[in-house]
């Protein structure tokens, strides 16, 4: 199977990503949500995140029959520590049956080239610690782990643990 | 030294955080930027990030003389995977000379209580992997590492590494 990388628009990206992202929605969240409702929220979220960036670009890997086999979305945004523009890779995804042909690497190169064309010197992303396959792939492609993302589950408040938050000073 | 936790406004938080964050700006970025310019960008960034959230809260730890010794900023935002509201701890900081008295823990409790009051079940944050002290503190306070944040430095494009990005399809 041969493929080429093309620049796509928001609609083409949403169409591909809506389907690709559905399996990553937690079971709990899926139970209370139809696919249509999910599609509505997915679009709203992508559009909302896009508006936060200085610029967005979508790249598609397209096979010989014109079918999209992978996609990437990068946004240029202002780093919250250095106040310089950095690239943030919101998504890079290749259909399972189309992996191992270099489509992901080609998408990543298109993203990097776009960032360089904007004078951007850093590309960042987040991925779950449980996704060892993705982390290995990013390491092989020149990424390094620079921060950790931590989460705490909030149970019901215990009486003695309550904070002494006072009204506005 | 005794302290109390109060809810603060955006201005009180900006004042504290502007000073506390300056040492974290990279040397390179500091060279090309006066403190005034930094202050302008800092305010712009905090205000911009605030607008992305459904709701923001600022808590201050204040000592007996009325001096702010610590601060926390939490925003409620929609999780990009589950589409449910989660708390994001943008900042929790205690002055070095005021550490070890529990001000950080008390600030964290105020943040958690606020999140619970909004029906939010998850609190998240990011911290550099190099900050082992912060990571230990968060682990002790019930946080777990769920994602990694990875970065790649983009050098100049090499001829052979160029992607075949085509104009919009």
Brief synopsis:
With 169 residues, chain A is an alpha+beta fold.
Overview of this protein structure:
2 copies of one chain form a homodimer. With 169 residues, chain A is an alpha+beta fold. Chain A has one domain: 3-Layer(aba) Sandwich (Aminopeptidase), CATH 3.40.630. Chain A is built from 5 helices and 7 strands; from the N terminus they run βαααβββαβαββ. Chain A has a 5-stranded mixed sheet, sandwiched between helices. In chain A, a hairpin with a 6-residue loop joins strand 3 (68-78) and strand 4 (85-94). Chain A starts with a strand and ends with a strand. Mean pLDDT of chain A is 89; it is low at 159-169. At the A-B interface, strand 1, helix 3, strand 2, helix 4 and strand 5 of A face strand 1, helix 3, strand 2, helix 4 and strand 5 of B. Strand 6 of chain A pairs antiparallel with strand 5 (122-128) of chain B, so a sheet runs across the interface.
How do the strands and helices of this protein lay out in sequence?
The structure is a homodimer of 169-residue chains.
Chain A: E1 3-8, H1 10-21, H2 27-31, H3 35-52, E2 55-63, E3 68-78, E4 85-94, H4 103-117, E5 122-128, H5 132-140, E6 144-153, E7 166-168
Name the CATH class of chain A.
Answer: Alpha Beta
CATH architecture of chain A: 3-Layer(aba) Sandwich
Order of helices and strands of chain A: EHHHEEEHEHEE
Give the percentage of residues in beta strands of chain A. Answer: 25-35%
Task: Please bin the fraction of helical residues of chain A.
Answer: 25-40%
- CATH-derived topology of chain A: Aminopeptidase
What is the CATH H-level superfamily of chain A? Gcn5-related N-acetyltransferase (GNAT)
Structural class of chain A: alpha+beta
| Largest interface in this structure | A-B, 76 and 74 residues
């Amino acid at each position: 199977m041969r493929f080429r990388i093309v620049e796509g628009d928001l609609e083409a990206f949403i169409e591909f990503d809506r389907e690709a992202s559905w399996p990553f929605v937690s079971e709990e969240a899926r139970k209370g949500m139809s696919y249509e409702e999910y599609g509505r929220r997915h679009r709203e979220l992508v559009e909302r995140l896009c508006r936060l960036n200085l610029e967005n670009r979508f790249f598609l890997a397209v096979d010989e029959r014109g079918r999209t086999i992978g996609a990437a979305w990068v946004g240029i945004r202002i780093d919250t520590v250095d106040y310089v523009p950095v690239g943030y890779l919101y998504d890079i995804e290749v259909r399972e049956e189309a992996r191992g042909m270099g489509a992901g690497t080609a998408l990543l190169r298109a993203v990097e080239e776009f960032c360089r064309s904007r004078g951007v010197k850093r590309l960042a992303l987040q991925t779950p610690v449980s996704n060892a396959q993705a982390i290995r792939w990013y390491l092989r492609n020149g990424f390094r782990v620079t921060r950790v993302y931590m989460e705490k589950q909030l149970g019901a408040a215990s009486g003695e643990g309550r904070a002494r938050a006072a009204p506005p000073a």
